[in-house]
Amino acid sequence: MIIRIFFALVALAILGLAIASSIYIFEKVEKPKAVAVREIKTTAPPKPIDPGIGEFEAAIGLLERRQWMSARDKFRHIIRFFPDSERYAPARHVCGELNLDMVVSPEISEFKSSYEVKRGDAVLRIAATHDTTLEYLKRVNGLMDFKISPGDQLMVRTLDFEVKVMVSAKKLIMMEAGEFFAEFDLEEVRLPSGVRLPYDDEIKSKTAWLDRSSVRVTEKGYDEARKQLRLGRRGLIISSPSEEVAESGSTPEAGIFMDPVGIEELNMLLRVGTPIHVAL
Questions:
Q1: C-alpha–C-alpha distance, residues 213 and 143, integer Å
Q2: Cα(162)–Cα(86) distance, rounded to whole angstroms?
Q3: Which pLDDT band holds residue 48 (cuts at 50, 70, 90)?
Q4: pLDDT band at 15 (very low <50, low <70, confident <90, very high)
Q5: In Å, what is the CA distance from 133 to each residue of 42, 129, 140, 199, 248?
């Protein structure tokens, strides 16, 4: 009897030691492991390095040193290679504004050349010969009108752009030689019924309206007139919203609408025949 009790006590002691050991191992080893694993799972991974930030800062530095074209090329580098960068959208905006400034600046010679007016020349012929627009010649040369004389020096530039209209994003994007040139916000896109996207079009004509009358580019009042770029599809235009339509309450015209400042830029830079790609 005494022997049985003795062995029972020994067994209980061993069991107690085993339990105590298990508790010790859990508290000192397994529990810390579990906590560590849980912390690893719940802790957010480190944010990846954004190379676009450094490139953007470098581009801004070039701007501050007035190295316009080098800065523009740096912004284009961000647009081309770092679309996921948080500096991607700012790079597009600054690059576009920079291009729009440089294209009309007499101080920037990129793609520009000088033309000496000859006897019998007319501005319309000069524009057609150099694949540019009358509006551009007037703007870049600071002309008050289109009167020219033999010996005059005109700055000319080929305007060879492609345009992408992104309907859902409400963006109009200008490209030149496959490179980003500028981007405009659209106020509204109203496509004619039956138009299926995507589709390709082109600018068929350019018109201007003042007090419901058409105005030619060489006529007085053209600068203040509402510009329209009419595409190949019947009734589809690129323009600013019509105040006459808004005031009358009539059915709005089909078109791609943007602010007046933007349409003035497009009207100056886009020639008849410029390709337009419209996509969802």
A1: 24
A2: 26
A3: confident
A4: very low
A5: 61, 10, 11, 26, 34
Structure tokens at 84: 């996921």
The CATH number of whichever domain residue 124 belongs to comes to 3.10.350.10
If one counts the domains in the chain, the total is: 3
Within a domain: residue 36?
Answer: no
User: For residue 204, what are the contacts with CB-CB under 8 A and spacing of at least 6?
Assistant: 230, 231, 232, 272
Look up the domain containing 87 and give its range: 51-104
For the residues 112-137, what does the mean pLDDT come to?
Answer: 96
In the predicted model, is pLDDT for residue 174 greater than 50? Answer: yes
**Of 77, 104, 131, the domain-final residue:** 104
Phi, psi of 230 (to 5 degrees): -95, 130
**pLDDT value of position 193:** 82
User: What phi and psi values does residue 225 have, to the nearest 5 degrees?
Assistant: -70, 155
Burial of 177 (0-12, 13-18, 19+ CB in 10 A): exposed
Residue 33 lies in a domain: no
At 247, is the pLDDT very low, low, confident or very high (cuts 50, 70, 90)? very low
In a domain, 27, yes or no: no
Local structure of residue 235 (DSSP, 8 states): T
Residues 176 and 241 in one domain: yes
What number of CA atoms fall less than 13 Å from residue 206's CA on the CB side? 19
| Same structural domain, 132 and 184 | no
Q: What is the mean pLDDT of the chain?
A: 85
Alpha helices, DSSP H only, in 116-203?
Answer: 123-129, 134-140
